[in-house]
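#structure-requests
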Amino acid sequence: MSKVAINFKTDKDLKDAFYSVVKEMHTTPTSLFNMFMSHTVQNRSVNISLPQEKTKMSEQAFYEMINDSLASGLKPMSIEELKALHKGE
């Protein structure tokens, strides 16, 4: 699969705030945009939710959640496995 670059303009403050949130989520802007585009194509819809209150999971809470999931028997999944699961394969 060949890769292409997508360029668009946005407000600098919005971009900076977005990159900050992305960093807190331990991912990359590219990953989030790819997930957004894949979801939009697969579902022919855009789901955007705005939480009533701001919530922020600490890094420690995130890793505790992952460890609890693994302890309960869930196995780590690659992005390919998640995509296949999402498609019902």
